[in-house]
Amino acid sequence: MSLVSNLIRSLLLTTFLSFIMPIMAIGTLLAAAFAIAHVPGLTAFGRIGSSQIWEFLAIFGGGYPLQGILAIGFSCGMVGCLFDLYNFYLYQDLRSQ
Hints:
Elements: H1 3-37, H2 43-60, H3 65-96
């Protein structure tokens, strides 16, 4: 395979995984908070935790939690993409020496 096709494949995979991982992490936190809310005696902690997570996401989404989680995922995806491009550039520079 050519070097460019390796770059494109690596770039797409890295960007996708960098986009998905924060969404999965926040989703796991939300699921845990909702699960804790169903445990007798811990209902208040679960509800407070889930409302705090929703408010945090709403800050990044201009009042909309779904837009907030997408904004965080997009930002992390772009950072992952930039790191992969830097790694590719560094690999090219080391290979030429």
